[in-house]
UniProtKB/TrEMBL annotation:
The keyword Lipoprotein is annotated on this UniProt entry: no
Name of this protein: Crp/Fnr family transcriptional regulator
Keyword Transcription regulation: yes
One GO MF term: DNA-binding transcription factor activity
Domain HTH crp-type residue range list: 147-220
Length: 238
């Protein structure tokens, strides 16, 4: 007979865990309800736990000395969040802000260490999760550094479509309201430059707006601008 914990299935960035190993994670979690606008952790806090999002959304940000915010990741249900080095006493490099009321499972590093030491198959799955996280970081920095702000914006739109997209014929609706300020914070640009770049893409009939949400009409054009390498969706996500 299956345990009650099996009613929750691994998805998001935890797809790499087998059902058995994901259930091992579930057993160690302590549930917590966190309201919108609160924080799971702040940049500079000691990293001694991971967070599994059962419901809601969380964004990871990095702040400059001038107060500029860069949005690095947007996590949702099925994602595990936190510093991926449980064997070392490190501090968080980012801030995790809750942008929708969320239900999370808290996993202490000491409990994670026990699972890794006791189950070699769990250790392998955890290494896969760390690898996905590392590749996601690498590709995001490539997008920000290699092909200018237009390339970074197009890559971000593609990532948003893979995360929140709904196919409608040849078009893809990004089914979350993303403001120009959000986009500017995702690519490290000014809001005005994002306005200009989106206006250019609309003139080229690559994107349009529908009820305040972005619709991608020409995905191939965006892929050409950002020199898309056709990464799998677990990597090419926001």
């Amino acid at each position: 007979m299956k345990e009650h914990t099996n009613v929750i299935e691994a998805h998001g960035n935890t797809n790499c865990f087998s059902e058995q190993n994901f259930n091992r994670l579930l057993v160690t979690m302590k549930e917590r309800l966190v309201p919108e606008g609160s924080h799971l952790f702040w940049e500079g806090d000691y990293s001694d736990k991971l967070f599994y999002i059962k419901r809601g959304r969380v964004k990871l940000t990095k702040s400059t000395d001038e107060g500029k915010e860069l949005i690095l990741y947007m996590y949702q249900a099925g994602d595990m969040v936190g510093q991926a080095d449980p064997f070392f006493s490190t501090k968080h490099s980012f801030t995790a802000e809750v942008i929708e009321e969320s239900e999370v499972g808290v996993i202490e590093h000491k409990d994670l260490e026990i699972l890794i030491c006791q189950h070699c198959d769990f250790a392998i799955d955890f290494m896969k999760w760390m690898g996905i996280h590392h590749r996601l970081t690498q590709t995001k920095f490539r997008d920000l550094m290699m092909y200018g702000k237009p390339g970074a914006l197009c890559s971000t739109l593609i990532r948003l479509s893979n995360t929140y997209g709904e196919k409608n014929g040849e078009s893809i609706l990004i089914n979350k309201k993303i403001t120009h300020t959000d986009l500017s914070n995702m690519i490290g640009a000014t809001r005005e430059s994002v306005n200009r770049m989106l206006s250019d893409l609309r003139k080229k009939d690559a994107v349009e707006y529908e009820n305040g949400m972005i619709v991608i009409k020409d995905l191939e054009m965006l892929q050409d601008i950002c020199h898309c390498e056709l990464c799998p969706n677990e990597i090419c996500r926001i």
